[in-house]
Amino acid sequence: MTKAKDIMHEGAQWITREETLTRAAQVMQLLDVGALPVSDDNGRLCGIITDRDIVVKCLAKGHDPDKVTAADLCEGTPRWIDANADVDDVLHEMEIHRIRRLPVIENKRLVGMISEADVARHLPDAQVAAFAGQIYSPAH
Question: Which CATH number goes with the domain that contains 87?
Answer without folding.
Answer: 3.10.580.10
